[in-house]
Design a protein that fits this description.
There is one protein chain. About 65% of the residues lie in helices and about 0% in strands. The chain is mainly alpha-helical. It has a single domain, classed as AhpD-like, CATH 1.20.1290.10. About 30% of the residues are buried.
């Protein structure tokens, strides 16, 4: 598949609005690795190779181990690699990304409120919504990682 349009050039105002969501997400109480965890898992589900590559690299640069990054897709089977909070973020990411299945469950929502509070729960949801939007742009535009863009 060849790369399609460059949304930033064709619709710069829309692209700027998407960038504003990223800027917002960077200023929330979510830690860098929490944001990257959400981005990696949503990108795996959505099949966005471009975003998956970029956010895996970003997670490694932020201090995540290779094992942590490699096991995100199998987090339920990964034993104690992920904290309870990270598992909750992964669960929420899956439920919101796969919204047509059932959406964010009452159980996950309640767990998030108990673990993170209302404000951080809202920030988590916004982070998940944002990467899902980016994934849809990346997949629609046929964005692909550069072949040699794998070094940390």
């Amino acid at each position: 598949m060849e790369k399609r349009m460059n949304f930033g050039k064709v619709e710069p105002a829309a692209y700027t609005a998407m960038d504003a969501l990223d800027t917002y997400n960077e200023k929330t109480s979510l830690e860098k690795l929490e944001r990257e965890l959400i981005k990696i898992r949503a990108s795996q589900i959505n099949g966005c190779g471009y975003c998956l590559n970029q956010h895996s690299l970003d997670a490694r640069k932020a201090g995540a181990s290779e094992q942590w990054v490699f096991l995100i897709g199998a987090w339920r089977e990964a034993g104690k690699i992920f904290t309870d909070e990270e598992k909750l973020l992964l669960q929420m990411t899956e439920e919101i990304t796969l919204i047509s299945q059932h959406g964010l469950s009452d159980a996950s929502y309640s767990q998030s409120i108990a673990a993170f509070g209302e404000q951080k729960t809202a920030q988590i949801i916004m982070a998940i919504v944002t990467i899902n939007a980016w994934n849809r742009l990346g997949v629609s535009a046929h964005l692909h990682p550069k072949k040699n863009n794998l070094a940390i």
